[in-house]
Automatic annotation (TrEMBL), chain A:
Keywords: Cell membrane, Membrane, Transmembrane, Transmembrane helix. It comes from Caproiciproducens galactitolivorans. Its main location: membrane. GO terms for molecular function: branched-chain amino acid transmembrane transporter activity. The keyword Ligase does not apply. PANTHER family: HIGH-AFFINITY BRANCHED-CHAIN AMINO ACID TRANSPORT PROTEIN BRAE, HIGH-AFFINITY BRANCHED-CHAIN AMINO ACID TRANSPORT SYSTEM PERMEASE. The gene is livH_2. The chain crosses the membrane at residues 12-30, 42-59, 66-86, 98-119, 126-146, 166-186, 217-234, 254-279, 291-311. It holds the Pfam family BPD_transp_2. InterPro entries: ABC_transp_permease, LivM-like. It is found in: Cell membrane. It comes from the Bacteria. This is High-affinity branched-chain amino acid transport system permease protein LivH. It is a multi-pass membrane protein.
UniProtKB/TrEMBL annotation, chain B:
This is High-affinity branched-chain amino acid transport system permease protein LivH. One of its GO terms (molecular function) is L-phenylalanine transmembrane transporter activity. The lineage of its organism: Bacteria, Bacillati, Bacillota, Clostridia, Eubacteriales. GO terms for biological process: D-alanine transmembrane transport; L-alanine transport; L-isoleucine import across plasma membrane. It is found in: Cell membrane.
UniProtKB/TrEMBL annotation, chain C:
InterPro entries: AAA+_ATPase, ABC_AA/LPS_Transport, ABC_transporter-like_ATP-bd, BCA_ABC_TP_C, P-loop_NTPase. GO terms for cellular component: plasma membrane. Coiled coil: none annotated. Residues 4-252 form the ABC transporter domain. Its EC number is 3.6.3.-. GO terms for biological process: D-alanine transmembrane transport; L-alanine transport; L-isoleucine import across plasma membrane; L-valine import across plasma membrane. This is Lipopolysaccharide export system ATP-binding protein LptB. It comes from Caproiciproducens galactitolivorans. GO terms for molecular function: ATP binding; ATP hydrolysis activity; L-isoleucine transmembrane transporter activity; L-phenylalanine transmembrane transporter activity; L-valine transmembrane transporter activity. Keywords: ATP-binding, Hydrolase, Nucleotide-binding, Transport. It comes from the Bacteria. It is an enzyme of class 3 (hydrolase).
């Protein structure tokens, strides 16, 4: 039916079931206060980082272009969303989703404005121009009255209340799931193929009839949109934002998550975003050596696995299961041969 | 007159950017790496001066020489330990970039552990009374910065164009494969480039210490970024370009500080970068290359 | 009416006149050869036809419409597809995706249909997969559909590149040294394949080749370039006996 094979449909269902299982598991633990608010905040931050890493993967992994100002798009999204919820007289449950979309659109618009001129050029220009954008947008936020300068914005509401401990988690979790899903389906659609073709060989892609500027812009603006949404989530998750939270270091942090996990590998991005959020928290006891250790790990991984931990491959439960089955099956066959 | 003073003042600060930009430019020219650790080499250089001059109380010339040597060696070592393996295996360039970011974080945190995160004050090093030319006042640091940077660039230009190692550098950046076939040891050449670039950053660090009173472990971050901007502005891979970019940046900064607002300096710097790239993607003095089809 | 025609085509790089007054016309379904010594400007002709370089003078008309100034991807969509002298495949993706990418512009479903997997996604993807398999079968590549392009042996990479060009549904197929690096058996097989695709896909083929047996054996019309100018043209027989051509190749006067 419509080309969906039975196997694929089963794998979709399995993945959907796993997603809901994880959701109900964690949200029950949070609601029952088994996971306290400190840890649930870390989980939320981890999910936001996953969203950011996966969105950057669209540009860095699929398109193969370097971005050094992803935090800039996050800033645009965070401020737009926060300004909306702070100034609009609507119940927060209504204004919050609208704010997220506004944050995404504002970031997408800035991505478009930067992308149009920058993506015409080949090479590292996008990296340099996004770097410039990230710095400029931060300086602007530092100097405008509407953004309240270096003090930033505060007093943003949260969906979490005394009686509802999982409000933010639910939102962030399902947006993260959706972004991962989107990354996967986009990557395997005709548009994603065109983007990958540009990564592989821009001249050949153009010669194959691909409108390269359009597809570059598409991937870039989509990534900026998602980063904007992530910014909106972030602003309301932590309740106060200021420009210093979106500096160059933040941009490189996101880039590191993508490259470390394996460029182009969505599961790799998820994995490393998760680990890199938890690791610094876990290393709090060694706070002096924490960043030193982090940098050494980073250098070593790059030296010995230059394509990242997972390379371009994806980790999937069904895939892992198949692999185990085939190795076990293979052994059986070999054994049978020996007996024969 | 006020305007002219600001411009000259800007040239003085721009000299520091220019010296650091040279390192970015040479390294990018030869291995296409935006070496984010390069900014932190300035910090290493500044702390070396601090250790020798203030902590060990040794003479100034020793501090300067020591800093240059130490940074040169550090540059070579960093290339050997953190980059060589990736360069030899022709790993994706982005992996190299992440490694450079790793080295940058490492250096910043190492120095924070060694010296603490609070700033250290530096004594005035080469101070003499300001000179007056008509209504324009030249401070000692401005004069020293500009003259040192000009001498350094001339020396570097001479080395790259006339000396054997300079020719090897140009050949390697043009086509590393062909250079290898012609019997050039590209590994040594690349290491040498890192060494020279880092030594120049140390000179920049000395000038920095002479210009600004304080140093701290994270000082290399923004300084490095701006020096990189200078390199791109002038045309990456071009020595006169890096100098021009550095001076322009310094002047733009100084004028923005004086006539607009010191809060907006960074925005102006990066704004100029974006505009220049859009109008002339290869930078002011960069050469055009076209991919062969 | 010829399917592809150039008039007074020329380009100068700086002061160097790389091509001058290049004119030829290719009929529908014709196999047309472009030969000449190294550096004569053959690949530059391809680069002009596909607007990788912009000609400094002249007209290129495809089906009677001037295409000078159109973007490379538009020219491909209008009906000129090419291969490259140094193979340019999408190395790190599968063989079949290489072919599907060239069919991209013929597909219609939107970004949202792709993301949300709407019925139009499934329908078009199914159709395109079938078409891609058909095409791979012509080149005996269907068994390697899911392999990475970079893992194919050299000869098959050349074939895949031709398959990819055909996937763009061209009226004119430009082949830049398709037989380079092939052994005599492979070359012979390639000649048959080219004749076959001309008949099957009703395309005109313009090819650059150094292997004279190949060119003489397959091309119905040949143009000879030397120092950026046409020095001879005609059938294989006519070109072969032309003293100017012999002089150009042997370097004599």
């Amino acid at each position: 039916m419509l080309g969906i094979s039975k196997k694929k449909r089963i794998s979709y269902l399995v993945n959907l079931a796993i997603v809901f299982l994880i959701y109900f598991g964690i949200s029950t633990l949070i609601a029952q206060r088994v996971i306290n608010s400190y840890y649930s905040d870390i989980i939320n931050m981890m999910l936001i980082n996953i969203i950011l890493a996966v969105s950057l993967n669209l540009v860095t992994g699929l398109l193969g272009q370097l971005v050094l100002g992803h935090a800039g798009f996050m800033l645009v999204g965070a401020y737009s969303a926060a300004l909306f919820t702070l100034n609009v007289k609507l119940p927060f449950t209504v204004s919050f989703p609208i704010a997220l979309i506004i944050g995404g659109l504002a970031a997408a618009l800035s991505g478009f404005i930067i992308g149009v001129p920058a993506l015409r050029l080949r090479g590292d220009y996008l990296a340099i121009i996004t770097l410039g954008f990230g710095e400029i947008i931060r300086v602007i936020a530092n100097n405008l009255t509407i953004t309240n300068g270096a003090k930033g914005l505060y007093g943003m509401e949260s969906l979490n209340t005394r009686h509802n401990l999982t409000g933010m988690f639910t939102y962030i979790f399902f947006i993260a799931v959706f972004v991962i899903f989107l990354n996967f389906t986009f990557g395997t659609s005709r548009h994603g193929r065109a983007v990958i073709a540009i990564r592989e060989d821009e001249i050949a892609a153009e010669a194959a009839g691909i409108h390269t500027t359009y597809y570059k812009l598409l991937a870039f603006v989509l990534a900026a949109f998602i980063a904007g949404v992530a910014g909106g989530l972030y602003a309301h998750q932590i309740g106060l934002i200021d420009p210093s939270k979106f500096d160059f270091n933040r941009s490189t942090e996101i880039l590191v998550m993508v490259v470390l996990g394996g460029m182009g590998s969505i599961t790799g991005s998820i994995l490393s975003a998760g680990v890199l959020t938890i690791l610094p928290e876990a290393l709090r006891g060694f706070s002096n050596y924490r960043m030193l250790l982090y940098s050494v790990v980073l250098i070593c991984v790059m030296l010995f696995r230059p394509t990242g931990l997972l390379g371009r491959s994806e980790f999937s439960l069904t895939g892992a299961f198949e692999k185990i089955r085939s190795t076990v099956g293979g052994n059986k066959k070999n054994a049978a041969k020996k007996e024969g | 007159m006020e305007f002219l003073s600001q411009v000259i003042n800007g040239l003085g600060i721009g000299s520091i950017y220019a010296l650091v930009a040279l390192g970015y430019s040479m390294v990018y020219g030869i291995v296409q790496l935006i070496n984010f650790a390069h900014g932190d080499i300035i910090m290493v250089g500044a702390y070396t001066v601090f250790v020798i001059l203030v902590m060990m109380n040794l003479p100034l010339w020793l501090a300067v020489l020591g800093s240059i040597l130490f940074c040169g060696v550090a540059g070579v070592l960093i290339e050997r330990i953190a980059y060589r393996r990736l360069l030899v295996h022709e790993a994706p360039r982005i992996s190299l970039l992440i490694t450079a970011i790793g080295v940058s974080i490492f250096l910043q945190n190492l120095y924070q552990l060694l010296f603490g995160s609070d700033p250290k004050s530096m004594p005035k090093m080469f101070a003499f009374a300001p000179l007056q030319f008509g209504g324009v006042q030249l401070t000692s640091s401005t004069i020293i910065n500009i003259s040192v940077s000009v001498v350094m660039m001339a020396g570097l230009q001479l080395m790259v164009n006339k000396m054997k190692i300079g020719k090897a550098m140009r050949a390697t950046s043009e086509d590393a494969g062909a250079a290898k076939l012609m019997g050039i040891n590209t590994n040594t050449t690349i290491a040498f480039t890192f060494g020279i670039g880092s030594a120049l950053a140390a000179v920049g660090a000395v000038l920095y210490c002479n210009t600004y009173p304080q140093i701290k472990p994270v000082m290399g971050g923004l300084l490095g970024l701006k020096a990189f901007v200078a390199a791109v502005l002038g045309g990456i891979g071009s020595i006169p370009g890096a100098m021009l970019g550095g001076y322009l940046l310094g002047v733009a900064e100084s004028l923005t500080n004086a006539y607009i607002s010191s809060n907006l300096t960074d925005a102006v710097v990066f704004g100029i970068l974006i505009i220049v790239l859009l109008v002339k993607p290869t930078g002011l003095l960069g050469k055009n290359t076209r991919e062969k089809v | 009416m010829p399917v592809l025609e150039t008039k007074n085509l020329g380009i100068a790089f700086g002061g160097l006149q790389a091509l001058q007054d290049v004119h030829f016309s290719i009929e529908k379904g014709e196999i047309f050869g472009l030969i000449g010594p190294n550096g004569a400007g053959k690949t530059t002709v391809f680069n002009l036809l596909t607007n990788v370089y912009v000609p400094t003078e002249g007209v290129i008309s495809l089906d009677g419409v001037n295409i000078v100034g159109k973007k490379t991807y538009q020219i491909t969509q209008n009906g000129i597809a090419r291969t490259f002298q140094n193979i340019r495949l999408f190395k790190d993706i599968s063989v079949i995706d290489n072919v599907k990418i060239a069919m991209n512009y013929q597909m219609k479903y939107s970004v949202l249909s792709g993301i949300f997997r709407l019925p139009s996604y499934w329908k078009e993807e199914k159709a395109v997969t079938e078409r891609a398999y058909e095409l791979l079968k012509v080149f005996h590549l269907e068994e390697h559909a899911d392999d990475l392009a970079k893992n194919l042996p050299y000869g098959q990479q050349r074939k895949l590149e031709i398959a990819r060009a055909l996937a763009a549904n061209p009226k004119v197929l430009l082949l830049d040294e398709p037989a380079a690096g092939m052994n005599p058996t492979e070359t012979k097989e390639l000649m048959e394949t080219i004749a076959l695709i001309r008949d099957k896909f009703k395309v005109a083929v313009l090819l650059i080749e150094h292997d004279m047996n190949f060119v003489m054996g397959i091309c119905e019309h040949i143009v000879v370039l030397d120092y950026g100018r046409i020095i001879a043209e005609g059938s294989a027989e006519e070109v072969r006996s032309n003293p100017k051509v012999i002089a150009a190749y042997l370097g004599g006067e």
